[in-house]
Amino acid sequence: MLIRTTLLLLAASLWPVAGAAQTPQELTIYTHPSFAAEWGPGPGIKQAFEAQCDCEVRYVVLESGGDILQRLRLEGENSPADIVLGLDTGTMNTARETGLLAPHQTDLAALELPIEWSDNLFVPYDWGYFAFVYDTEQLQEPPHSLDALINAPDDLKIIIQDPRTSTPGLGLLLWMRSVYGEEAPEKWQRLKGKILTTTKSWSDGYFSLFMNGEAPMILSYSTSPAYHMAIDKTDRYQAAEFEEGHYLQVEVAALVKSSNHKQLGRRFLQFVLTDKFQQHIPLKNVMYPAIDLGPDLPDVFNRLIEPVNTLYFDPAVVADKRKAWLNEWLDAMTR
Amino acid sequence: MSGSGWRIWPGTLLALGIVGLAACGVGALLWQAPALDATELWSSRYLRSVLVFTVWQAALSVFLSLLVALPIARALDRHRRFPGRGILLRLMELSLVLPTIVAVSGIVGVYGRQGWLTSLLQEWSPSLNWNLYGLNGIVLAHIFFNAPLAARILLQTLESTPEGQRRIASQLGLGPLWQWRALEWPAMRPVLPGVAALVFTLCFTSFAIVMTLGGGPGATTLEVAIYQSLRFEFDFGRAALLAVVQLLICGSLWWLVLRKGVTASLVPDRKLSGNSIRKDSTGVHVVTDGALLVTFTLFLILPLLAVLFRGFPGLLDALSPGDASLSGSGLLPATLRSLAIALPAGAASVLTALLILAAKKAGNFQLLSRLCEVTAYLPLIIPPLVLGTGLFLLLRPKLGVTNEGLVLVALINAVMALPFVLQLLRGPFNNLDPATVNQADQLGIRGWYRWRWLYWPRMRRPLALAMAYGTGLSLGDFGVIALFGAPGEPTIPVLLYQQLGSYQMSAAAASGLWLLLLLLGLFAFFNLLGRQPPRVKRVGHTVTEYPEPDHA
What we know:
The structure holds two protein chains of two kinds.
Chain A: H1 2-14, E1 26-31, H2 33-36, H3 42-53, E2 56-61, H4 65-75, E3 83-88, H5 92-97, E4 101-102, E5 122-135, H6 146-151, E6 158-161, H7 167-180, H8 184-191, E7 195-199, H9 202-210, E8 217-221, H10 224-230, E9 237-240, E10 246-256, H11 262-272, H12 275-278, H13 281-284, E11 288-289, E12 310-311, H14 315-334
Helix pairs in contact in A: 8-14
Chain B: H1 5-32, H2 40-43, H3 45-78, H4 85-94, H5 100-111, H6 116-124, H7 135-159, H8 163-172, H9 176-188, H10 192-204, H11 208-213, H12 222-231, H13 236-259, H14 284-319, H15 324-362, H16 366-381, H17 384-395, H18 402-430, H19 434-443, H20 447-475, H21 479-483, H22 492-501, H23 505-530
Helix pairs in contact in B: 1-13, 1-15, 1-16, 1-17, 3-7, 3-10, 3-14, 4-7, 5-14, 7-10, 10-13, 12-13, 14-15, 14-23, 15-18, 15-20, 16-18, 18-20, 20-23, 22-23
Keywords (chain A): Periplasm, Signal, Transport
Subcellular location (chain A): Periplasm
Signal peptide (chain A): 1-20
């Protein structure tokens, strides 16, 4: 009885996995969960591109930007990926150095970013600023600068992410570095008392802790409140604008050198900078679109903070210094 | 004994395969590492502090978990019949398979800064400055996960003290102290080192808990350092080096424990207990034990209630047919996919465990026996991520079809569940009473018949429980599935993380609750399958009948 039931169950449960047919022109895109998820921008973009390419788009979902890069490196020349989508300015140069990517040959004229962009490998598809999102019901007067945060009394608690395992975490490390330079380690030591906890990934902190009311502030994106305002219909969560400026994150896509469908891949990268792709970005990826969407940009985006000062390190500098800065951070935090 | 060749070989090969798999995993990383720098271990202040912290928190967790488990096991042993005992025991079994992110969310809901209990305590004594994050949280969560497991194992050994001894103790009117000295301590002592080693290993290799509740780099474990080297530094050498350190520490601990000869099984196998009422289960003990058990039950159940409360509204939305566009449509396919990985993984680990046990029993070589012991503990010690990445490196050119990836996920999940499944099955498999075996030998009952009439009636219950464990462990897996990239088709844990990644907080809470309910359902389902069918006339009395305890 046990065996028979188990076998039946096995057969029944394996059924939906089997039988994914292969089509001749298939564009394989490595990306992360929030892009490809059913409520993310992925499905709409897939549909829009398939309508004009006579091909099939297949997403391979990896845990994070870091994992996309990791997977690409592990697979090397044998990678089945045609496009990687979801790397960012913090991991981009490491990806470049693998030598596994091919030039995009895309016209970048339409780009609307806070910085100049002229990279031959990476096509930006969205951007945003790292920011501290706070709960207005718990914190009426949020700090208005990084300095104020660092000098605040220790009963102001924040949640941050580990720069070794998450991109916003790395973003804060770079943010601190770009504001304080060599003094950053010392400032980290002062900030330490305010850190309630450092989580592995953004989602761990946001879900288990911030939404549970554990801390009034969490390191997130300046665009996060847009989701709460537009979809959850609440103004409760807002980003605090810091005087020193905010660190910029640009998310990028690139063509894989070993791809068998390079032409199709390049068509996709051109497609990235069109309305049909970009209109899915604001509310589904909760970031700024990479081109000017004009009136198509949802209204809530006009209610977000607009940092006067954009902080940004060249990706090559990040790649060069990351390890040293991480070690300084580790040292400051364990001292 | 029956002809043993076919019983030895499959199991031995599987055991060798698992050792080989582990060696391949670590070996592939070492092979890919440009140059290994072992001096880093003692020259880096950070790595040293990681090592010290890992050992320290694990030791503390073991000590406190056992401190909780001992009185609970005694109280449960003293009181063999009370309403809800069965449910409490079920609950205690669940902790091993509870996915961490779900449990942590519940723990935060109770003990966090805004948690139920914290607010209550704060009102009571405002001076109390409880902070969940850091060592506090890690150890608390480890107790939550491990104390029930330890108590369950200890209860098992208590319940298996011979009825005769108990009767004599009862006739002599031994008080609690003497009961402890004459019965309970001698019963538990041989198991304690094994339980301690198990809990130590689980806490030593703990990852998600440390990452969420740890508070920062000051509280980093070896497993976290391995994760970081693999995922973000691409430093295979360091990862392999740290994995070897982990292997050495936990491995030598197990070696020490096993050398002393731990025979009892480390996971409850629900063997049978008598129903005698103990003398000391009356009077003042009713009150103290009652209070103890109620507190413990609350300790286990409050975080689960927190998960329930947070997830319930979202789950209603998700399951309501009208609103299929948002979250509801994702949950069902994810559930099917999860089961498609978890059920084969569970079945594979149960089958492997049986074959290994058979091989160990049939073969008389010291070496074979050792090999089987090693396979029982190796997967506990090797980080799944190391195994996964190593295998990935080896299989790389051939990988790419997603279904292969899923098979690999199921395979690694099966290997990871093996230690627990083996523990569950070992007791009932080996403890067939000699008279029965002799009789069967004389009658020449072998092969299939031997299995059908001797083992199956004794094994169906443990087998069902082992299936529940194996499936449950795999159901909650997030690490391995993430590595082998299930395509846009998520399992429930992956779906949960996806929802988190895109601010779908109530949907994520719902998925968490759904996962919890699914686990409960699985345990209930396998429990049902494990039930003896209504008694029919048996051929002779080859099977010794024991009274069924209420709870099993």
